[in-house]
Amino acid sequence: MPDEPHGAVAPSAGQALAQGWCALSSLHGRIETHIERALQARHDLSVREFSVLNVLSGQHDGDGGHLQMKQLADSVVLSQSATTRLVTRLEDRGLLARYICPGDRRGIYTDVSDEGLKLLEEARPTHDTALREALAEAARRPELAPLVAAVEGLTGTTC
């Protein structure tokens, strides 16, 4: 092993994957915590609440822009029960509404309200600034810098 320091052992493929996963998890946690603090302080909004409003706003093109609860849960990577609790909190604040699907009485749709769209637009610059700050801070850590570069290189992906 010519590239390894004397006495060092190269990690196995499994160990390397575990280290990569650990770094990715660390990056995610750092970013989410930084954004959470900024959104809470300035807009009384959690990262998850922002994500729900953001996903629903992407579906919003006038009347009928909505998602079923299961689609919303999948989009924000939460269980259906956690999504229901989150939607209830946002609904109580007047930021979105739920209604029964006219074509399928079993389906429940969720749509962002005008008030929710307004709050989202007010919060988006805070979110984006906090994201840039968190990435810049993480980029200074050697173990996270390659992941930050990969994230910054992503284009055309949607959330």
Which CATH architecture is right? Orthogonal Bundle
Number of domains: 1
Strand runs, count: 3
The CATH topology is what?
A: Arc Repressor Mutant, subunit A
**End-to-end Cα distance:** 42 Å
Q: What is this structure, in a nutshell?
A:
The protein has six helices and three strands; from the N terminus they run ααβααββαα.
Topology:
Layout: H1 13-43, H2 47-59, E1 67-68, H3 69-76, H4 80-92, E2 96-100, E3 108-112, H5 114-139, H6 145-153
Antiparallel strand pairs: 1-3, 2-3
InterPro entries: HTH_MarR-typ (IPR000835), MarR/SlyA-like (IPR039422), WH-like_DNA-bd_sf (IPR036388), WH_DNA-bd_sf (IPR036390)
Protein name: DNA-binding MarR family transcriptional regulator
Domain HTH marR-type: 10-156
Essential attributes:
mainly alpha, elongated, DNA-binding, 6 helices, 3 strands, DNA-binding MarR family transcriptional regulator, MarR/SlyA-like, 3-stranded antiparallel beta sheet, 159 residues, Arc Repressor Mutant, subunit A, single chain, 63% helix
Explain what the structure shows.
This is DNA-binding MarR family transcriptional regulator. Keywords: DNA-binding. GO terms for molecular function: DNA binding; DNA-binding transcription factor activity. The chain has helices at about 15-45, 45-60, 70-75, 80-90, 115-140, 145-155; strands at about 65-70, 95-100, 110. With about 160 residues, it is mainly alpha-helical. The chain has a single domain (about 15-150), classed as Arc Repressor Mutant, subunit A (Orthogonal Bundle), CATH 1.10.10.10. Strands 1-3-2 form a three-stranded antiparallel β-sheet. Helix 1 (about 15-45) crosses helix 5 (about 115-140).
